[in-house]
Amino acid sequence: MTKFRIGFVWRLFAGFCVLILVTAGIVGFLASGFVERETLAAVDRQLENEARLLHNIAVVGLTQPDNSEAQRALREMVTTLGGSLGTRFTVMDDGGVVVADSAEDPRRMDNHATRPEILEAGRTGLGMASRFSRTVEQRMRYLALPLEHDGARLGFVRTSLPLTLLEERLRHLRGLVLLGALIAVAAGLALSGFLAPRFTRPLRAMATRAEAIAQGAYAQRVAVTSHDELGQLAVAFNSMSEELHRSAATLAADRNKLSAILSSMVEGVVAVDRDERIVHVNQVAGGLLDLDPEGSVGRPIWETTRIREVTEILSETLRTQEICHRRAYLPGSLDRHLELRASPLRANGDLVGAVLVLHDVSRLQHLEAVRRDFVGNVSHEIKTPVTVIRGLAETLIDDPELEPSLRQRFLGKLDRQSERLLNLVTDLLSLSRLESEEAPLELSPLDVCDVLEESLRLIEPAGEAKRISLTADWPEEPLLVDGDDEALRQAVSNLLDNAVKYSCEGSRVALRAREDAGRVVIEVADEGPGIEPRHHERLFERFYRVDAARSRELGGTGLGLAIVKHTALALGGEVAFESKLGEGSTFRIILPPSRHAVEPAADDEPVGD
Question: What global pTM score does this model have?
């Protein structure tokens, strides 16, 4: 308790000190600025008055017929007047040459034409400046006026005073402000020591009773000794203690009821309290979550299950006090889906925990995934050709006398759009077949070279139409993989078709195959425009196009590379590619070699003697 009291006193004192020092600093800054401005203004007024007096004297001296004698008399008068007034006087001609000075021999002084106050006086009629003077070895304030007579400028007069008085006043003022701040800090320390016990005594009493409540003694109360904020805090503390006492009793009774209800349910049920500690687990939930219903009671839910979604949904329900839904996989079985539904548990309107109901919805999840993928990825792809076909068909029906050339053009568009629909459906069926877990590919040993030769033969007409040179390069010996002949041929054909479509006329497309590091590598290289790096990461996604407009114009469905990727994965391999803008692209299908030996076929049955 002593530490708390001392800490509070010092915190209160620190607050006073900060306030006092900040206030003293602001007052000192403002006062210093005010004193400096007022003192400087008084100096400037004195200097201006004396400068005008010097102006009249200098005019008389510089306009005498005997110029040398007049200048000597002027220097004596300036020296005498400057000594009597304590002000330094300087007279100079229009070229800046010093004629007379009250503190220095003019012949030893520099030309003053470039002094700031002289330049400003020449421009505006009055020049002022503050700087350190090397002649008198102190900081000076200068004021200069043009020396004019009968409309002609004869030169300049300048008066100056040391700023010693100003600096002394500022030092004195800062000392007074610092002394006042120290006195105020001492007073703040005394005031903190006087006020702190009035706050710490009731706070210590509340801390003691709060510790007792934490141990389960809910009947603790504190005395209300004032009507200020501390008194209001004591009243609130007593109200909190009473409410905790009632809530604890209600929670104990409702927990018993809740356990009976949860134990009778046939679905998987997990109940937790507000601290996410397990209150009840029935046998179904124990089997689904692989935990002991009896041994897990009282333990945090995140210690008993490996399913992250279970702990997250319970935490979210307790935080938001709303019903939450989520899906999850059972550990070690990606085809087992759980639907999680968590609801808050309340007693007398207060949140006391949450209950989680688990349903095995593996079959429904599979059907929902199929539906969602189909609707999300296909609907917009089908909409365009169907809309075009319908519009063209309505035009042909509504206008039976349509010009033959225009009718033929519309029929050509109908044919292309229907072909696009057919290609889309075909690719969708192929992709669905590759992704289907119920109908996986039937793998058997096959020679990659035979597949490549057939794919190259199928693409040759398209290559000849664009005058694209198709080259082939693979070894004479078989390159065996375990694969599906139709799926692999479609994947290679898709790569060749893309290479021909996006290559310029007269360029080359190369189809190669080789064995590299124990794996079979199929390559399709083109000399097309290449692919920008920003597209590389998403290139094999379904319906993703680098140039959507051009792809649709060329009849692409956006599924070709996705089919290539899923074919390689289904055959236990992978895909890779390299591309540089303006230099072309190279796509690779990398497959593991066949694990089964191919038995040579016998030409004739053996004949016995």
Answer: 0.39
